[in-house]
Each structure stands twice: as C-alpha cells, then as structure tokens.
Amino acid sequence: MKVQKIVTEQYGTNSYIIDNKYVVDPGIGIGKHIKNKVDVILTHAHFDHLLGLNELNYDKIYLHPGDFEMIKNAEINLSKIIGAPIEIRENLYDIQDAFETIHTPGHTEGSVLIFMNNHIFSGDTVFYNSVGRTDLPSGDQYKLENSIEKIKKIFKTKDKNIIIHPGHMEETNIERILEENPYLF
C-alpha cells in the first residue's frame, strides 16, 4: 500500500492519497496532487478535512454516520464561518461497512481511527504528542477520554511499528505514541 502525505494549504491539514484510489481528509489544494477519480475517506467532518472535496473527482465519501449531519450542515462543520460553505448530501457511505475502524467519539461524534494494513489514519482524535480538542460542534471531553482509554488498550495489542497518520502534525508509530503522548501513558 502506497501512502502519500500532502500537508494542505492554509490549515495545515494532513491529507493522504492511498494507491491513487483513495483520498483521506481532503484539505485545500489536494486537487493539485491527484486528477483521477477517487473515493474519499473521512476521519471526521470538520471543514479543514473537507475543503478539498470540490477539487476532486470522487465517487463515494466514507464517513461515520455520527458525522452525517455535520457534513450536511455548513454551520456545524464550521465551513460557513470561514466563508466557504460545504454541505454534502449525496454519495455518503458508512465507513464501518467498508473499512476496519474504531469509533472514537470526542473530537466529533463520528470521529474514527481507520486501520489499513500497517497504517492507522487517526484524524484529529490522537496526534503523536496530544489529542484532539473538544470545544467545537459535537465535541465531548468525557467521550474523548473514553475513546483515548479504548485506543490505549488497542494500541498495546498491535504491532509497535504500525504507522499513525494524524490529521495534523507529524506522523509517528504505535511505539513512539505510547512513549511520547502523555494522554496514552
């Protein structure tokens, strides 16, 4: 599996192109890097992970149903606030039916970690040294704390070399995140 990381303009969103077939969390400018038809995989539905959708020729959007309302509403996904309203109502598919995921509510109700071979796409749930914020629409500190506990248990059973691709900042692996992320000690 080939994963290409693109740090997109303006919001520093990490977007990922997988085998030229999928785009994970398409941020602004992703269209410069891929022209063929793709399916989109979303870790959650905040605007910075959606702004590149209009640059892509896509068929399906995979997202957790907990964020279906968010992707359909520019006020909830916060795209209206930045003057680039995005409201997607078609081609939405439950990510749990197509990919191995862990539902990790907290950053948003529909946040997920996506497992693909030796890669985990963690969106804004967990970063190499931090976790996602909970002060945005559908964020919930209590749910995030429960999700982090679940992640900790799962990561301790996985191969330590699995690469973690977050929605922002640098990539890491399970070994490093368990050693350096104070939320996962």
UniProtKB/TrEMBL annotation:
Source superkingdom: Bacteria
Pfam hit, one: Lactamase_B
InterPro entries named among the record's database cross-references: MBL_Glyoxalase_II, Metallo-B-lactamas, RibonucZ/Hydroxyglut_hydro
Domain annotation Metallo-beta-lactamase: ranges: 12-168
Keyword vocabulary terms for this entry: Hydrolase, Metal-binding, Zinc
Example GO molecular function: metal ion binding
Cofactors (names): Zn(2+)
UniProt protein name: Glyoxylase, beta-lactamase superfamily II
Record lineage: Bacteria, Thermotogati, Thermotogota, Thermotogae, Petrotogales
